[in-house]
Input
Amino acid sequence: MNPGLFTRSEDKRKVTLPGGVTLLSEVLPAALSVSVGVWVRSGSRHEGPAQRGISHFLEHMVFKGTENRSAYEIALSLDRRGGQLDAFTTKEYTCFSARVLVEDLPVALDLLADLVLRARLDEDMVELEKRVVVEEIQGVLDDPDDWIHDLASEEIYGSHPMARPILGDEEAVSAFRPEQLRRWMSERYTGQGTVISVAGPLEHDAVRRQVEALFPMEAGPALEPADGTPPEPERRLRHVSRDLQQQHLWLGRLGIGYAHPDRYALLLLATLLGGSMSSRLFQSIRERAALAYNVFSYADFASDTGSLGTYMAVSPARTGEALRLTLDEFVRLISQSVGEEELSDARMQLKGNMLIALESLPARMARMAKNELAYGRFLEIGELVERVDAVSVEDLRRLAAEFLDPATLSLVSLGPNPDTGTF
Output
């Protein structure tokens, strides 16, 4: 791979606006469009028992009308310009984003400011949207390959806030009131709780002037860190009985946070295990045993914790066989050294994924924001590549012994077969 790919200069800038908003901008002269995101430090792990799902609910509610626009006008504002408007909520933040032609950046920024700063939160719309979100919650229960990941979070995090589902639950959502939503926005939607990221053929100073004029946010109270110390990993088994055609299986444990020095080693371990068609589990479970159509492993990271998981869906009658083969691969990674060639291939796959992602304008915008939220600074692509290349065979052996130890793994099984074999 050409080392020059990792040393290209990236024209990025970070400034803190008077109200505390962090503005990140990247100039990409060859692009025809601009991607912009407003990232707010409001996620499910910040919520108390009576607030379960409030971050996600507010993500919905801002689209139901602002002081300047009706819900239809919000929907039409970028549609009529060929642009895209989106939003999503995670356990640690909420993002409102837009992608438009460069000439429409002022319109997109004005719209996003309207959503974040001037949502009406009318009582009649709150009551209507409760029904929509309850339908969304019920939809997850009808989607086992989605629901099992919520079950897995509950199992490995226990009483920790990271266990909470992003959507909340029907009881909490049904009790939301406009004044409760406004209070949450006043506490979380503050200058120091907001990162605005913009990428495209722009001018740094021009973007700063527009954002500063449109987002006069107050600094707000100091944001408390997410509550709770993550629990210690332990062996746990949970079976949820459902009349399904397949048995959905999740096997994994607690991981590590973004800033942990082993982050890239754990990513490589997940890549080797089940991150691609050539990975060990894909070859064993799908190609040789024909047990599953979909099987993968992943490492997920949060500010102070994370998870390492493997997921597959198999015939209920072959649940035990699938688990045995999976655990065999875990043990093999613990007991046998990964070869340099296999590690080199995994490194190249991870680095290639990083570089290919840079071809996407929304991905570049999101990368800047996530770097800021996780590290408080930019991580240049060259630095990421160096971290991947620094991972050794011994690092993988050490992490395999820690993170694939059956004594620390939790198994969540969703389907008609309660028999998990020898697990």
The first strand starts at residue 12 and ends at 16. Residues 236-415 form a domain with the Cytochrome Bc1 Complex; Chain A, domain 1 fold (CATH 3.30.830.10).
